[in-house]
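idk why but the lab printer keeps eating my pages so im just putting this in chat instead. protein + nicotinamide-adenine-dinucleotide:
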Amino acid sequence: MAKVGMYGGKFLIIHQGHVSTMIRASTMVEELHIILTHDEDYEREFYFNGTTMKPIPYHQRLRWWNELTKDLPHVKVHAVAEKQTGEFYDWEKGAVGIKAAIGKEIDVVFSSEHAYGDHFEKLYPSAKHVVLDAERRTYPISATQIREEGAMKHWAIIPHVVQPYFVRTVVVVGTESAGKSTLVKNLANLYNTSYVEEYGRKFYDHIGAEIAIESDFPKIAFEHKYHETEQAKRANKLLFIDTEANVTQYFSWAYLGYEQPVLDQVAALQNYDLWLFLEPDVKWVDDGTRLFGEQTIRERNNDYLKAILDRQNITYHSISGNYHERLEQAIELVDEILEEKLYGETNE
Ligand SMILES: NC(=O)c1ccc[n+]([C@@H]2O[C@H](COP(=O)([O-])OP(=O)(O)OC[C@H]3O[C@@H](n4cnc5c(N)ncnc54)[C@H](O)[C@@H]3O)[C@@H](O)[C@H]2O)c1
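predcted complex ->
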């Protein structure tokens, strides 16, 4: 078996074609070095310009390769900076950094392009060029196509560790008994994906307490974030989320009579793709835990929550009417997100 193999690329974005080549190559050498070459200015101009996708930082790509190879200890991942000066890639310059990163003789260079043979013969004269799946039979896709057409259209060939980065998040907010949890579950089932329940409710059910104390609210906000991360891993393009840190802030005010700066700090880290604000114009349902059933109080609370969102410069879509009308309004907005019309592809 050959000793040292190299498999290089920009991996903008990593797709299953790259993963299958990496796995095949990893069975053919004693150690495989994945080289991620990067020049973010060049990539912005020549790879992302004119696409709906935002540039992907190289440390994010490196992290994906780390996750994808975590059970393959003989596969090493390196990032190699390659400052480009013109439109065309300088192979010679690139090879200097690659050889330095690997630090030993390279026996095999893997790619899926016969066309790279001439470069590799010149730059790595003692190495063999092994071309894997040149016809791209396993995954007939290119990263260029994904950048141009968007990740949503090619979801099935986006590796599972990469998918959460592209998941579109839809958060549903509102005061008590505005229909949040029903809408969130309906939307998740309708779009065949995962959702995050309001954690505050579970928190109080779990401890069996009715009295709220100050420290409950940061705990609720933190735990809610954990569930968002976990459910994003299971999401099919979309993740529906019931409440977030501003609603927790509102509940702190409603139950304790004051807000907590830590909840604003959590809220400042949030970056949802779509905010649906449910107006309190459906019947108030007393589920045994709710306190604010009188309509004037519901409206006062509603104004307070909106003021919190305005203060945070959040653009939300107001959803009102009966349950059918609410669902249809939500679907229309979610479809725009899926079609990447509303905000385009936005990432962290
Ligand atoms: N200078 C060097 O010596 C050297 C050597 C190797 C790689 N590189 C870097 O890699 C780049 C060349 O690779 P690229 O631009 O094609 O990178 P890329 O990130 O688009 O692709 C990386 C590799 O995956 C293969 N691939 C793409 N789609 C595939 C699919 N559907 N199925 C199977 N395999 C697939 C590509 O052919 C390539 O071999 C260079 O621009 C450079 O950044 C440099």
